[in-house]
Amino acid sequence: MSPEKPRALALALPVAGVVAATASFQAGAALAKGLFPALGPQGTVALRVLLGALMLVAIVRPWRRWPRDAPRLPILVLGAATAGATLFFYLAIGRVPQGVAIALQFLGPLAVAVAGSRRALDLVWTALAAAGVWGLVGSGAADGGRLDLLGVAWALAAAACWAAYIVWGRAASAAYGAATPAVALAIAAVIVTPVGVAHAGAALLRPELLPLAALVALISTAIPFTLEMYALPRMPARTFAVLTSLEPAWGALFGLVLLSEVLAPPQLAGVAAVIAAAAGAALSSAPRPGAPQRQSPPPS
């Protein structure tokens, strides 16, 4: 085997891992809507986050390398941001197509990427994202009706939580290392479980729902986390950010294939504009000389 083949494989595997992780997350979200009639978005989130936290804690076993005297605030805020991003996103996809919701949610990391920037190029990405939002929201639904504004509001709330996740995730990761996602998701489970219990009650314990809930937790949490943790150390953070910007496309695709959610042409153009803005902002971002690039994965 020539030396070029191992190098090509070493690059291809992490890229495939990130692409599969983003697809897995959106496939899990589409499958989760099958639980909405019985549990509602709140109950579905509670069951999915709780099961996902149990899976991650079992995989990572964060107590093995628990840091001493680590600050509590970053991990607590990260857990709350994870809970909010997941809950608000599920509330959004209960009212608007999945592709629209995930594209609007991507405004959070895009805002973090361009915040405080004085470069003219970042204004281009901001304008492109604004045009994408207009295509998503201003054009109405594919059936001619208006897009549910409460669903749009939930998606924007999820975007704000995702922005907080990125900002606080850096501080939490520096303190807790590889244990960070498992601990954050466990905190998120503590927050969203009472919400799910208040909304769905005893339905959360219905045995016929547990197989689908476990599958959603596996596809939405354990598989993407494992793939991302494999890929992150093996590729530049900028490449990772560009690849994750494909997630709205996966949301639109799985919304169509699994949920029969058809987007109007302006909405498809809006999804494409948000993807281009997120990828462009990631590609053009330049770290300070000597500063390492860091990229937080999306909330699991």
- Which blocks of ≥5 consecutive residues have pLDDT under 50? 288-295
Mean model confidence by pLDDT: 84
Helicity level, as a percent range?
A: over 70%
* Overall outline: globular
Radius of gyration, in angstroms, nearest whole number:
19 Å
Q: What do these coordinates show?
A:
Helix content is 74%, strand content 0%. It has twelve helices and no strands. Residues 288-295 have low confidence and may be disordered.
Task: Furnish the topology, listing elements before pairings.
Elements: H1 4-32, H2 36-60, H3 72-93, H4 98-105, H5 107-114, H6 120-138, H7 149-176, H8 180-200, H9 210-231, H10 237-244, H11 247-259, H12 265-284
Helix pairs in contact: 1-9, 1-10, 1-11, 2-3, 2-8, 2-9, 3-7, 3-8, 4-7, 4-11, 4-12, 5-6, 5-7, 5-12, 6-12, 10-12, 11-12
Quick description:
This protein is mostly helical. Helix content is 74%, strand content 0%.
Which descriptors would you attach to this protein?
mainly alpha; 12 helices; 74% helix
